[in-house]
Each structure stands twice: as structure tokens, then as C-alpha cells.
Amino acid sequence: MALKSELMASSLPASAASKLGFDTPATVAAAGSGQSTATVLAGNYANVTSGSGGVLLAEKLAAVVNTSGGSLNVYPPSGQSINGLSANAAFAVGNNKQALFIQAGTVWLGILSA
To answer: What is the per-residue pLDDT across 24-78, written as a single tens digit (0 to 9) for each?
Structure first.
């Protein structure tokens, strides 16, 4: 999917681009030992390059790339679940893998790369 800036450069209004496009990838360090202490993702496109632990989803659509050297835990917001896991449970993203997360109410769909 295109970045928000690319969509606006092709004449799509900013209001539409902000709903359809991705932010410029942010470099993030994973942290914490659980959902309450994980690094909160500030945008919808994150490259996790360091740290151990996890990240917490904060947008309705998020792409997460894991190049940290280890497995990464991705947590839904409090009380929510990913792919039928228990509420608040982590979704594991292996090193050098990518995942796309899409929110539908209190349930998230996580699509993991091969």
C-alpha cells in the first residue's frame, strides 16, 4: 500500500490519504514484558529494529516489520484479541518477518508474511 505522502502527491485529498495510506516507516525499539509495558506504536507503519519484548497496536490498520534479531510480540489494545487468541494475548512475529494488522471492533486480523 502507498504512503500517505505518495497518495497526496497524486492529488488525493489529505483527508482520504490519511485513511488509506501508511505513515512513513518509524524505527521502533520493542520493550516490556507484557501488554502494559510494551512500546506503543505511534503510527501505522513500524520497523522494529531493536529491543526485546513487544509493541502495542494503536491504529486501526498497522504494518509491523521485525528486524530486531529475535521474535517480537505484538499486542492488541486492552480487552481486544488478534486472530482468535485470548484477549490481550500477544501475536508472535518472527525475525525478518512482516505482519499486517486490521481492526474490526475488538478483534484484529493479523496477516503474517511467509
So the answer is: 889 999 999 999 999 999 999 999 999 999 999 999 999 999 999 999 999 999 9
How far apart CA 102 and CA 50 sit, in angstroms, is 24
- Quote the pTM value: 0.88
C-alpha cell at 26: 518509524
Q: Supply the CATH classification number for the domain 23-112.
A: 2.60.120
Q: Which DSSP symbol is given to 16?
A: H
Of 106, 79, 110, nearest in space to 93 by CA: 110
- Cβ–Cβ < 8 Å for 97, 113: yes
d(CA 21, CA 5): 8
- Report the candidate in 17, 15, 16, 14 with the shortest Cα–Cα distance to residue 2: 17
Chain centre to alpha carbon of residue 95:
15
Residues 90 and 73 sit within 8 Å (Cβ to Cβ) = yes
The domain locations on the chain are: 23-112
